[in-house]
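Input structure tokens:
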């Protein structure tokens, strides 16, 4: 007789697992000891792992990583429930209501569809939500851009918020000009640092940060995700460097045994090989 397939586990099962792990008497000692602050880094890490699976086109891996990310939501909700603040059901209710509220052109009046994006309705709805939560509009427009975002992503969000009220370059060309200006200022700061000028090290850091900020702005004007672009560049570098290692290994050598000129040649060969692929 064939084995009866196991009943698929559902969200309620996951909620029970988390409650059991956090049980003060019979739960896992590690899980019981965690707080919002100690779990937050894992939440951020899981978000990156989801992005990594997407970048690699690994849908099987994505399924697992989305599960890990869901566990983080369940974890935080469970800790909040233990404090009598809210539970997982409240999280689901809040986000569902928010999506319906923010998309009246889909859920309420289809005639609003074409005009919705240019009418300012999205920002008005978000402002109303802030007011309902007791948040006034007297602070900065940038106040709720999360500090924990990766710096490049946060730069784009800050710039996007400012652009909504007209504080923005009119086109890409002046942003590119600003990048050239920042490169010149970085070169000058580096020259000062080499001369041992007081405070020059901090100035180099500042000018380098300014250059990165402008590069994020260029990405925004090009409608690119700078984090995704940099991840792709990282992957390309790792792939080509691995080709260098493989070529040297075939010669019974390692990068430590090779000169820079030899590795540069192998890099160019790896680059040419990639370019020749259909």
């Amino acid at each position: 007789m064939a084995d009866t397939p196991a009943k698929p586990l559902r969200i309620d099962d996951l909620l029970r697992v988390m409650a059991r792990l956090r049980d003060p008497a019979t739960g896992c000692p590690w899980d019981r000891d965690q707080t919002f602050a100690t779990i937050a880094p894992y939440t951020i890490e899981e978000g990156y792992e989801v992005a990594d699976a997407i970048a690699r086109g690994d849908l099987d891996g994505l399924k697992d990583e989305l599960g890990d990310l869901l566990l983080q939501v369940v974890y935080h909700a469970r800790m909040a429930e233990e404090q009598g603040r809210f539970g997982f059901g409240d999280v689901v209710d809040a986000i569902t209501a928010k999506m319906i509220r923010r998309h009246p052109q889909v859920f309420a009046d289809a005639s609003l569809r074409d005009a919705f994006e240019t009418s300012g309705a999205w920002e008005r709805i978000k402002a109303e939500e802030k007011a309902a939560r007791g948040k006034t509009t007297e602070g900065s427009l940038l106040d709720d851009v999360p500090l924990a975002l990766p710096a490049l992503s946060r730069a784009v969000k800050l710039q996007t918020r400012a652009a909504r009220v007209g504080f923005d370059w009119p086109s890409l060309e002046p942003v590119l000009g600003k990048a050239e200006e920042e490169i010149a200022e970085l070169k000058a700061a580096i020259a000062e640092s080499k001369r041992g000028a007081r405070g020059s090290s901090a100035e180099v850091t500042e000018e380098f940060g300014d250059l990165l900020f402008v590069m994020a702005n260029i990405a925004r004007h090009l409608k690119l995700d700078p984090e995704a672009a940099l991840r792709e560049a990282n992957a390309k570098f790792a792939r080509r460097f691995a080709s260098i290692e493989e070529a040297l290994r075939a010669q019974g050598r390692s990068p430590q045994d090779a000169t820079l000129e030899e590795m540069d040649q192998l890099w160019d060969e790896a680059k040419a090989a990639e370019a020749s692929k259909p």
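The first helix runs from residue 11 to 21. The chain has four domains: 11-94, 103-138, 153-224, 228-276.
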